[in-house]
Write a structure and sequence with these properties.
Helix 1 packs antiparallel against helix 2 and helix 7 crosses helix 8. The chain is α+β, with helices and mostly antiparallel strands and about 325 residues long. It is built from eight helices and twelve strands. A hairpin with a 5-residue loop joins strand 5 and strand 6. The strands form two sheets. Strands 4-3-2-6-5-1-11-12 form an eight-stranded mixed sheet. A four-stranded antiparallel sheet has the order 7-8-9-10. The longest helix is centred in the first third of the chain and has 23 residues. The chain has one domain: Glutamine Phosphoribosylpyrophosphate, subunit 1, domain 1, CATH 3.60.20. It binds aspartic acid. The site of aspartic acid has 16 residues, from strand 8.
Length: about 325
């Protein structure tokens, strides 16, 4: 392994992906597992070939966006108006640079647009039509909004519409299967990406935690990298990803910080969620207070793929 930065020890890359924290129904569990494994393999290939952490999280999240199982890109949930509005963020822990997109309707891979915003624009966040115009100018794939909608989600939307719109109980159930990835590369740099269609039957224009820096994602080489999933309206109240990074900066391991982050969410908000966390040296943290968190990870050279729950059921 390389030893850039002269840290005295060789750096082993690390990668975790997630496919959402919620009450994953039995008929979707196998696909969630497979999807996380596939994205992990892709991200790992990038890392072991010497790609950057940013390359790896983008590659892994693109796989998840193209997989109709998840609430991101293809397969995303519909708004109450029947459209699909996608959000994504990517962050480079080496210089804290970030790019995010909000409410895009025709960009095939929102995570790639977020990366282009980060690297090619003078801005950090672009929303709606302006973001799409930028995507077009940057030569990214645009697809019709209806092209993202899969039969499963159309039927769910029709059923919800037929039953009317009772106010949702935030403490019950869980919205969706947002996707995310955190990576540590051979140079010792961290990155994170998170991508989502948001919550099912959301109001048009609603923005959750996912594209908000420090909420849906945060990465800092000085502390760690975090991708969050769960009830956005709650996750943003505790700025969960930055809060977890701050705990690692003050000395907690990735697992201790992940547990503390979910503990804070549980104590201070009505919502539920899940976190994947990498410490600056690649230690892994995974926590959730939802019934499941679909995830897969690699450490050393071992792929631990396709797990729905953390092993000892903490927070469940
Ligand atoms: N956090 C996402 C949002 O609130 C939803 C999810 O993670 O499933 O938009």
């Amino acid at each position: 392994m390389l030893n850039p930065g002269g840290r005295g020890k060789s750096i082993l890359p690390a990668l975790i992906v997630h496919g959402g924290a919620w009450d994953i129904p039995e008929h979707l569990q196998q696909d969630s597992i497979e999807g996380c494994r596939k994205a992990t393999r892709r991200g790992w290939e990038v890392l072991t070939l010497g790609g950057s952490a940013v390359d790896a999280v983008e590659a892994a999240v693109r796989v998840l966006e193209d997989d109709p199982t998840f609430d991101a890109g293809q397969g995303a949930v519909l708004t109450c108006a029947g459209a699909i509005e996608l959000d994504a963020i990517i962050m480079d822990g080496s210089d804290l640079n970030l790019g995010a997109v909000i409410g895009v309707q025709r960009v095939r891979n929102p995570v790639t647009l977020a990366r282009v915003v980060m690297t090619e624009s003078e801005h950090a966040i672009l929303a709606g039509e302006g973001a799409e115009a930028f995507a077009k100018r940057s030569g990214l794939d645009l697809v019709p909004n209806s092209g993202f909608a899969v039969e499963r989600e159309k039927q769910r939307w029709q059923a919800k519409r037929a039953e009317g719109q009772p106010r949702e109980d935030l403490s019950k159930g869980h919205p969706g299967d947002t996707v995310g990835a955190v990576a540590l590369d051979l140079s010792g740099h961290l990155a994170v990406a998170t991508s989502t269609g948001g919550t099912f039957y959301k109001h048009p224009g609603r923005v959750g935690d996912s594209p908000l820096v420090g909420c849906g994602a945060y990465a800092d080489d000085w502390s760690g990298a975090v991708s969050a999933t769960g009830r956005g309206e709650s996750l943003m109240r505790v700025v969960i990803s930055k809060s977890v990074c701050d705990l690692m900066y003050r000395g907690m391991t990735a697992q201790e910080a992940a547990d503390a982050g979910i503990g804070l969410l549980a104590r201070r908000t009505p919502g539920q969620g899940g976190l994947i966390v990498l410490g600056k040296r690649g230690d892994i943290g995974i926590a959730h207070n939802t019934p499941y968190l679909a995830h897969a990870y690699v450490k050393g050279n071992e792929i631990i793929g396709g797990v729905l729950k953390i092993p000892d059921g903490r927070h469940t």
